[in-house]
Amino acid sequence: MNVIWLSLIISVILVSLCIIKRDSKPMFYLLFAWMWILFTFNHANADFKMYRSIYYGTLSVSSIESGFYLLCKIFRNLGFTYNMFLGVYSFVGLTLISKTIFKYSNNKSLVLGLYFIFPFVFDVIQIRNFMAFAIVIYSLKYLIDKDNINIKRYILLILIASMFHSFALIALAFIFLNKFHSSKVKLAVFLSILFIVIILRNGLLVDLLSKIVNSEKVAAYFVDSRYMPGLKTSLLSILICLLMYIISYLTYKKTKNDFSNITYQIFILVLVLIPLLFYNATIMRFPREMLLLLYIAFSNNLKPKTRDNKFLYNKKNIFTGVLMIVLIVLWLDTFIISIHNEKSTIYSVLRDNYVVDLFKEEE
Question: What are the angstrom distances between the C-alpha of 311 and each of 22, 104, 317?
Fold first, then answer.
């Protein structure tokens, strides 16, 4: 059997059982272990060679944040190989994500199963982004239980996250999310961002930012035309953002708890950031990583199973569930290439793995 199909079968079985069982701790931990294996023992993906070279100090990239560099240096000096480093690194990140799931979701294994479907494979590849947003998601508990001390803790964690990927700094805007209940504020923010995009097009803000932030990073995000999306990707991305907002609104109206409230506000922020999408497709990393919050909020719409293993569905839950399925399909169709393509993100994560290699047929 081709190893990619073996990995795919294992993944489908574990994810299916997690979704069916919904709140099964054994299934949660089994899928967690499989995700850790796929992350730790991966040996070829789009960014693997670059990060391995950075880890061993044979490649210097000035746009890489200092926190990630420092962590690599510490583990390298301790004698860890790159994959050993990935083992510790991924365990910490997945644990931070799991703690958030356990704290806020009534259907834990369901959430992890959805996260595996998307965007887990991206996190295996974009490891700086993975850790940064694992910290951001974990830190939200300090924003939900808001007081002066917790706000300071939240800001500190966001600053730590930004040492892995500067994109995490966008999470500082979450502190002001309660302001987004005003339609006037939403419009003002949207128009402000649209104005910024126009300035970016003229190159004025790029020059200013280059004097404040690393010039290579500014060039990568705002000058390099490779990051500008095509019309199809832009339209699909807007549709994705709208769907995420609608689902967050429906879940908030159903549960009306603190977690669904902050999730809803975050996806209002996603909507007002849409103008930036026309300048740089990487802005979609933000809603992509916030998907986990949407999964948690959605999972709390579902009542826990009764002893006779039945579940009472209603029209609103079914409608929200259908929207969630459409959303995930759109994400997969827009940002992940077919499994039959060897350059696919899925292909590299499921096939190129030292553990999976043990089951390769000898040629």
Answer: 11, 20, 11
Verify cis geometry, omega within 30 degrees of 0, for the bond prior to 119: yes
- CA 108-110-116 angle, to 5 degrees, is 105
Burial class (CB in 10 A: 0-12, 13-18, 19+), 77: exposed
Question: Whole-angstrom Cα distance, residue 243 to residue 231?
Answer: 18
CA distance 151 to 157: 10
Between CA 253 and CA 237 the distance in angstroms is 24
Q: How many CB atoms lie within 10 A of CB 196?
A: 14
| 177 vs 57, residue with greater confidence | 57
How far out from the chain centre does Cα 230 lie? 22
For residue 35, report the phi and psi dihedrals to the nearest 5 degrees. Answer: -65, -40
Which whole number is the average pLDDT over 73-77? Answer: 97
- Dump the DSSP string for 75-96: HHHTT--HHHHHHHHHHHHHHH
pLDDT for residue 112: 98
pLDDT per residue over 21-62, tens digit each?
999 999 999 999 999 999 999 999 989 999 999 999 998 887
Tokens of 271: 């909507």
| H/E element, 200 | helix 183-202
Dist. CA 140–CA 161, nearest whole Å: 12
Asked if 18 and 112 touch (Cβ cutoff 8 Å), the reply is yes
How many Å apart are CA 194 and CA 278, to the nearest integer? 10
167, 132 Cβ separation under 8 angstroms: yes
Residue position matching structure tokens 């004097």: 211
Whether 160 has a pLDDT exceeding 80, the answer reads: yes
Q: What is the mean pLDDT of the chain?
A: 84
Neighbouring C-beta atoms of residue 235, cutoff 10 Å: 12
Determine the average pLDDT of the residues in 118-146. Answer: 95
End-to-end distance of the chain based on CA atoms, in angstroms?
12
Q: What ranges make up the beta strands (E) of the chain?
A: none
